[in-house]
Predict the structure of Sodium-coupled monocarboxylate transporter 2.
Amino acid sequence: MSELLPSGYKEPFYKGEYSFNTGRVHQFTWVDYLIFAAMLAISASIGVFHAIKDRKKNLDNYLMAGRQMSPIPVGLSLLASFMSAITLLGNPAEIYLYSIMYFWIGLGYFLCIAGASHIYLPMFYQLQVTSAYEYLEQRFSRGVRTAASLVFVLQSILYMAIVLYAPSLALNAVTGFTLWGSVVAIGSIATLYTAFGGMKAVLFADSFQVLTMMTALLAVLIKGGMVIGGLGPAWDSLKRTNRYIWDDTTVNPSVRHTVWSLSIGGYFTWVAIFGVNQTQVQRAVTTPSLTKAKIAMWMNFPGKCFILFLCCFIGIYMSAFYENCDPIKAKFISDSNQVLPMFVMDVLSDQQGLPGLFIAGLFSGALSTLASGLNSLSAAVFKDVIGLYWKDKFNDRSARILSILIVIIFGAILLGLAYVASLLGNVLQAALSLFGIIGGPLLGVFTLGMFFPWANYIGAFCGLFGSLILLFWIGVGAAVYSPPTLKAFHYIHNCNLSVLSNDTIASMFANVTKVIDTSAPAYDLYRLSYMYYSMTAVLATVTIGLVVSFITGYTKPQDVNPRLICPFFDVIFPFCFLPECIRKPLRFGIVHTGVYGEPEIVDKESKSPDKVQSVENHINVALEVDTKQGKIKSNKIDVDVNSADKVDTKL
């Protein structure tokens, strides 16, 4: 900063070849392009390697990596799947546009990982599913399973379209590289290495890409802090620009970000992803044990917080740097999602290669999310739709080929939907709103099945689609009647007017003072914070589902397989320490046995999936012997004695 400011300029004033002084945005050098191309080449080569190495493996290996993966690559893949370019662009833009309240989402992350690891994940692991929606068939019906899977498909393709568009927009802003050429290039690479490399390629590519993301963020944070002069000047800037808001404890659900919306609302938003989303469940169950699956899941809490804090502090430095010359008002860029790439080019352009490293990190986030999503879409569509209704028409080889074709088809669809994403504005809010509007009802139907034994399949259908209709109504209404939000102050004191066009200068001063529209939208529901969308959807799904179930004939708890109900009060702190006399009635007649999350194991002698021994083999079951058919029958067991190599005599 300069002690002697030019006439009319205000502190802080930054001297140098920066955009607000020169009137131009820095461009990539050949070194930057080289680093960016190297990242794409490495990602593609991982897919090629596993496509060749595992070309003779079966469908289970293609979709589930043989269920023998180490928790480290699985944990990194879980982290990368939804810590995409949206996070890298959206989190700093959130600080720049509004305030530092978003730090509180870290508490929501902790609650989310705890809930996903100890409530939802054990259920999927003990059932050894490939598709998370297999649970819904066992709990409700085949139709509920297929309906939920198709809702997941809708959520995934819309989300991935945003993920594909956001970094392409950034690359276009800072390099001049054609926007749609970038969309096609990135979408094609992700589609091809996912299609031919399978789950292992996705896991190892994700691991490489998340490390690239973190390295790029660290480079931007360190150099940004050096330019600004450290955290002290940046913190002072927060106070001057109305961004120093971090303790809003308002209970009002219409306030966009509060401690409660970001922690409690954040829990429901993110547990819908880490707890029941096919993308995350499919990765978690590739580990050989539940303990390792939980380790992989818990790796995400420090990982997510590390990326969150890096992004938020970058946003703080970015806000201080552009305090007195807003690049959007100065027409250097057209979108808040482009502020971070411009900041990178301003502060890193004197170090050849570092801008390329950042863009490589940005696209690493996009590639990891696209690859994970496409792989999960393939598993969901094949297992829950095609394989479920036409299973006899496919052998293992044809099933794998079909799975590859599904990836390629959805990759092509994403390229078209990227245009829709260009119309959505703030990518972070758009993505999280999508998680709530579509992911929330899915979380609701799983919650209905796992916690409420009275729910039947009719209630599940009505709850799922009823909450979808409600949330789409709220979401579309909020988009049409945008609720008022308080933004940070954005100034133009230090913009070098001599290098700007007359039209730009006129528009800048025409918008110096902007009156916030505080009029209420048509319905109060439209004012609901987007962070509460998922929680609202869960409450709506459960309420509608239970009401319809009791009207149409509820399921008796004793008729439900205990393995399909979560023993919440027996496994969750602090309820698990309650006396048995209190916990017993809270089970509502469900008799839970064994360890929650332990899967059924195959008899090692027969190695047949049809001849399994439950780890809960101490249960006393009344048996009925049919000597004519040579079978032992009960309401739980149907074992063919003539063909079985071994029968558990403890039964």
